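Appendix B, example 12.
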Amino acid sequence: MDNNKIKNAMKRSGVYIALCVGILAVGVVTAVGYRAAVGSLTETLIPDVSDTLQLPDLGEYETVDSIVTDAEKTDDAVAFEDDTLEVTAADITEELETLFYEEARVLPVSGEILTEFSWGELVKMTGSVWKTHDGIDISAPEGTAVKSMTSGTVTDIYNDTLWGNCVVIDHGDTVIGYYCGLGDDISVSIGDKVASGTVIGTVGNTADIESDMESHLHFALKYENAWIDPISYIEPVK
């Protein structure tokens, strides 16, 4: 091979090498530029929060357990004050006291029990009449105020040939009260709503079937249409 051919071949090889080096340099510059651009964009969109986010140092698990276990519970943790509340504790107490008064059960009159509830047994009445005594007889002078046992609605007022002047009050929950032997000065009317202790009349002497007894009120109760002992119903809540 002559010298001219060798020189030409070397020139072509140099050109190729230079061209490859140039391409490689462009690739390196492009890659560096891309990484720099991506890094800048990442810093802009996702800032480094390591300096601003402070996580508590919980220490060892045993230390944390001890802190939680030894923590004291106080009422202050749930106490709060709110001046905007319209209902106060005093209001609630007053409401409960009113409700208790309205629903309290009281004997219609205070006195000795002359005749108890007979629990289905026959007892001797005036005129040698034997029958069950389905209520109680409470001793009280004529004219003594008779009060409603508890709240309710007056459903009937009538004069019975045996029991005299009677007032019937529906006390709710299927409990019906019969107030018998009253005087003529009955102070309620059918349909009236009464509270516990409301005066409905006075003790009279109008019950012929018990006319040979001292002055008293005959008081009887029905529960679910069956006679029950008034004392057993009233005393548990006195």
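The first strand starts at residue 113 and ends at 115. The chain has four helices and twelve strands.
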